[in-house]
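Researcher: Good morning. I'm working through a list of sequences from a screen, and I'd like to move beyond sequence-only analysis. For each chain I'm collecting a predicted structure so we can compare shapes side by side. This is the next one on the list. No need for commentary yet; just the structure.
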Amino acid sequence: MPEMIFQITPYAVICSLGAVTAVVVAIVAWLRRDTSGGKSLTALMIAAAIWATGAAMEYATIGIPGQILWSKFQYFGTVTCPVLLLIFALEYNHMSVWLTRRNILFLFCIPLITIVLALTNEWHMLIWTSYTPSPAGNNITIYGHGIGFWIGAVGYSYLVMLAGTILLIRGALLMPSPYRKQVILVVFAALLPWTANFIYVFGLSPAPGLELTPLFIVIAGGIFTWAIFQFKLLDLVPIARDTLIETMEDGMLVLDTQNRVVDANPAARRLLGKNAQFKIGQYVGEIFNEWPEARTLFMQNNPELKTEYPIEDGAGGFIEISLSPVHDGQGHMNGQFIVMRDITDRIHLDNEMRSVNDALRLKLTEIESLQAHLHELAIRDSLTGLFNRRYLDEILDRELARARRGNYEISLMLIDLDHFKQFNDTYGHKAGDQVLISLGKYLPQGVREGDIVCRYGGEEFLVILPGVNLDDGIKRAEKICKDFSNLPVTYDSYDLNGTISIGVSVYPTHGKTADDLIRSADAAMYVAKQNGRNRVCAQV
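Model: Good morning. Structure tokens for this chain:
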């Protein structure tokens, strides 16, 4: 960033006043932001304040590098002001339907590109091609402009500004005389800065390189402020009755205190159907002959009510009727305002949404069931149906943590089939699988409901016995060992009765971690193997 030296000049002071005025108008407009055009006018004045502030700093900066930096800063306001003026004109004319997010982004595309070109001008010189000190002095620099400037900052900006000004003029021509003055003031104020900018762009300034736009921003800001307070700009935003009432899709009826129709629009006749031939002054109950429920509502003078009724048109249509009271200046009720809206599409859409939601809930239930099934497959051994090694690694650490908190013991049984390799070699692997399946079916029946049985791997099984001490663990292991030796297992015509060896360890005596306990039970199980198999041993 270039080193900056500042000097107060008359043009810097004028631009500063413009910036302050624009900020004041932005604050006043923001206080009226809930009215149509309030937010866009606030944004327009903020952009004008950025423009004027950059100009003030440019005229106060000595040296072209610093002035270029402030010129770039100005572009954030210079190229966005026209778009914001157009948005303000659309909102003021009640044409906000055009202000979709996509359209707004489209309007700001060229300004954003122009800003990027200004910020990177040193690389391509598409915005400024030369910088020459003005003979008029006062820190004024004459800029040579490139094609990017003429397209983005001039052509597009003037085109958008012209569209906004035409809309404001259109509003002035269509509106009644009390409102026409405020729009004429807005148009006049909007044209002032751009007239000055036109003079600068085409080299018509009294001093070479002098841009008078900030000075006219001061004047325009003053006019905006005067219009806001004097003519209640943003407070009185008119809506033409013919445009709003006669062309609205919603039906409208206005009733007097005697429930007689004093006004109606074409949409009301259309929504009420062929049988509802009514005229001004007619009692509303006669119009709603086919809807006795609705007719009684008008008789009750409800302060506010909204209800739905089916349309007897044979097509399954629905109509929504809203009642609102009409009060005079003293707050006395002097009639009712009825709005009728065709909600057939909404009702049908709601029904479709309910059907879709029901289908989604069914799919969700199926997905949850499938997830539960997949989870079960992930933690179950496919051959025996017992929990697998993956689940064991998860659950054993959890059980040990509970035992530490509850200060109780846990016994572990590591079970191994004796001479399992001989089953496979003698009878085949299917016979060996049958022995594993038989042991897998028996073990859950031979332990308590809260005990956990897992297939540890191959022909080894592991049983977790929470709350069981070493002596009880040994007793239970001995019963399992004895019962299984007497369990008949047949495959084809072969008698496959087998035996098991069991090693028992207990937490915390033989270890405080899963690895230590399994290692201890494994060592005890190998002692059982060495001592003749078909027996139980515990780690000493």
